[in-house]
Amino acid sequence: MVFQEKYMRMLFALVLIMGIVALYAYTQRTLKEAQYLTGNAATISVSGEGEVLARPDIASFSFSVRAEATEAAAAQAQSAEAVNAILAYLKDEGIAEEDAKTQKYQLRPQYDYVRATCAVGTCSDSKRVLRGYEVNQSVIVKVRDTGAAGALLAGVGERGATSISELNFTVDEEDVHVVAAREKAIADAKDKAQELADDLGVQLVRIVGFNEAGGGRIDYMAETRMMPFDDAVGVVAMVPEMPVGENTFTSNVSITYEVK
């Protein structure tokens, strides 16, 4: 009987100890989860930068043709003749049809404002008199052979373009370089995080936050702001040098780590 009582006491004590251990483990786990969920876990934040240089393989420019006549149909015919001649030239020079796209086509009347003449003296009122019609068509051109850009600018001007925009050099597959710059930025941030953790004597547990700030692309732009060719005698006779340089793709990231 005494032995049985001792056995029951020992069994009760063992169950009590196991219950305390289980309760302690559960409490610790609950505290850790609560700490994480409430954002009280110890963290460090680091930033990283990545940069990729790429030589442009695409040039683009736009040209405009402006025509004016007393009749709308005549103005349209003049504009169409010049634009078609330019497009035919570009096609002969290897520009694909899908690489020449109309940006704007505008037909609008042009008016003069003249003072009305009274029987005695000059009246102060004026009236609007239709002078004619103006057509303005702009076309953007993509040039896949960047070395031919200068000659194409000259050729377009010689065939009736009244103005040419700035020439831009870009990279066709930009996403590849954007991703490469981001990968460099992330690797830079990870290296900094590990170095900081070592200095602080802590361990990196997991990533709990990530942000990519605005980086982007820096294009090379050739200075080709030309005056209208009507007023620029001899300008288009010169074929300009067009160095393409390099475009820069950048990424800036911030990573937050939980540490212990």
Explain this structure to me?
With 260 residues, the chain is of the alpha+beta class. It folds into three domains: 1-40; 42-57 and 172-234 and 245-260, Translation Initiation Factor IF3 (2-Layer Sandwich), CATH 3.30.110.170; 59-170, Alpha-Beta Plaits (2-Layer Sandwich). Helices cover 36% and strands 39% of the residues. It contains four helices and nine strands; from the N terminus they run αββαββαββαβββ. Strands 2, 3, 4, 5, 6 and 8 form a six-stranded antiparallel β-sheet that branches. The chain is elongated. The two termini are 54 Å apart. The model is unreliable at 221-237 (pLDDT under 50).
Distance between the termini: 54 Å
Instruction: State the shape.
Output: elongated
Supply the helix-strand structural class: alpha+beta
- Number of helical segments with 4 or more residues: 4
What is the name of the CATH class of the largest domain?
Alpha Beta
Helix content percent band? 25-40%
Summary of the model, kept short:
The chain is built from four helices and nine strands, in the order αββαββαββαβββ.
Which key terms come to mind for this protein?
single chain, 260 residues, alpha+beta, Translation Initiation Factor IF3, Alpha-Beta Plaits, 3 domains, 6-stranded antiparallel sheet, 4 helices, 9 strands
